[in-house]
């Protein structure tokens, strides 16, 4: 949610900022802007525009229209004030000397604004960020770092800030609290950014700033300080993935590329974790004693990551005979959850920065629980604050709608369930080994599902103009339907709902009429007959039924459904990992046929760092 990039070096900065912002646009894309120090002008030049980054790039002629070698840039997902030129970042102080880019929310901005207005400071935008620029100027007596430091004492909320002062054009200031900020180290240049994707073209040496830290970037180095302004030495990490991982590589959309990358992503997530017929987690912080004492598991997450938790609940409870609760992170923190020292809280997050999930994690720790997180982005806040981290190793996910992160989160959670079951002795050795064999076959089986995409594309072409879609299923199929439904609505803007099939008759079936599109999910063998009964019920009321089932049940399903998509047979717990591919592809093709902006759906952003 909002992307920040800052550069200080010897090259012309504007094209570098635009390039960096293009890699961060997934974080927000309703407006963009840059501030550059120009020697010619003897001060800051600020350009910002409503709309996609391309609008700004056109205004700046790809960066050629701005002269300077130090600057900050921003791509916005509006919180305070509608997308407009004036509300775009950078926000500048009244004198035009101090420019600020911000990701997050200043919670006490109303009070701070009133305080500054009382002191005669005029405001031009509706943003909370302008308060920061004006406040820093209010404290500014010639030392910009000191002014920032004093301002931070008054500011409440979550923020990553990039600050440029015209009086100190040989430095940039970066600040981080509860929103991500990384520093990129180069030879004669340095970067700050919301995410490594913005700097990876220039450097792989990065530092993940910690909460409360400030940094001063010059051309020759970076000095970090803790919240007491004491210098701190930071460990430099080396990013180990290639730039191509964050590029489309010939695909029309990141989402499609990421759907197709899923088999490989699963190989990365699974293969190193199965050794000599056992689940193996490197540096795993939960010992067997802890696992045996565990009284309950809470899975806490948002959106698709929450849907992974829903699948996990069915799998873990069946395997462990231990209660599992799945909670939306935004609810968890206010629901006064019942946790003990023996409750394991599993936080699932692709970005590792989702504010609701982060807050839930802190609440869980405050209440004494142990927190294990399943995270994709290395070094992210959730990863760092958890007691134990399992990375999904899916590589950078750029499309706003998650696909490969979902699949790898699910695989890691399933492996964890299997490991717990083995320790607790709630799984027979034979079933354990057979399930692990199925894990090893999963990427290959998923490849065969993805190879069948022409059929899904054809079905999408038949149904893309429907205005409402239902996903029905029981148990694991219901949990999978939740994700299928979210995928469809977020990128194609078609209203859709996922229902536990047995619940339809308690009210919702009244919405089924001639031509209503129903996705019937019937992959679970032991519930197949029940699934069929529900298909018959909706068919009898005129629905068009597209079904997903296993190859062995294709024929039975085809007797009633209008079309059947199949997945290879596998053990129960892995069925959603295969079935979901059809639903992702369907959502993708429908959105394509409806002419939607697939990678950047309206009103959304990838990393949701506001409450
Ligand atoms: C949907 C989607 C979102 C995220 C949710 C949580 O396609 O991507 O629903 O799953 O915002 O994000 P993370 O996993 O980064 O915490």
The CATH topology of the largest domain = Glutamine Phosphoribosylpyrophosphate, subunit 1, domain 1
Per CATH, the architecture of the largest domain is: 4-Layer Sandwich
Question: What is the number of domains?
Answer: 3
Number of E-state strands:
27
**Sheet having the most strands:** 8 strands, antiparallel
Small-molecule binders here are: fructose -6-phosphate
Strand content: 15-25%
Helix proportion = 25-40%
Structural class: alpha/beta
Top-tier CATH class of the largest domain: Alpha Beta
Average pLDDT number: 95
List the quaternary state of the chains.
Answer: single chain
Helix count from the secondary structure assignment: 19
The stretches of 5 or more residues where confidence is low (pLDDT under 50) are none
Q: Assign the CATH superfamily of the largest domain.
A: Aminohydrolase, N-terminal nucleophile (Ntn) domain
Distance between the termini: 11 Å
> How would the global form be characterised?
globular
Across the major sheet, the strand order is: 3-2-4-1-10-9-11-15
Gyration radius, in Å: 25 Å
